[in-house]
Amino acid sequence: MATSDRFRARRPAALLALAALAGLAAACTQLKRCSYEGFGRDAWQQPERVVEALALEPGARVADLGSGGGYFTFRLARAVPAGRVYAVDVDTDLNAYVAGRAQEEGLTNVQVVLAEYADPKLPEPVDLVFTSNTYHHLEDRTRYFTNAKQYLRPGGRVAILELSEAPSWFLPSHTTSAETIRSEMEAAGYRFVEVHDFLERQHFLVFSVD
Question: What is the SS3 assignment for 31?
Fold first, then answer.
């Protein structure tokens, strides 16, 4: 068999292998999204009410820190049609998913940012740093948010939603008490502004830099 014939014979198998790899990558991304978002999240998360409570101006700049699959990113983007939302995550697959979905939905005010574990790497200061169920993943939180002040505009805010109870028995570390959050944020130089108490599973605390 000639070399070209052998190549043509192997080509369908190679294409099938590439398709399988692409499908596996998509499945992995979907699995990661599910692990972040869970099932039936809308019922207990009340995302529309959360975004409403933030009282964002239409032209605000927002960083969704630990954006994952964009659960809050797209809702925030619709709340600031004349502004911008930075979907900040260290996961390249999820960032690619968010970027693709933003393009599909015509949300031109969404921009993904590949962060570092110790630095959100925002391209400009923002009015709000928003984070949901990400706080416990940060190793040195006081240092992290001390550094993050450079990414906030004067009077900028940080809104932290953090689980108040473990989502399951094998994830006990995925919580942080409200007292710990407030103590660490104040140590980082932030002023406590308010707490929203309408979420059953999460703390919802807001801080500011003046």
Answer: helix
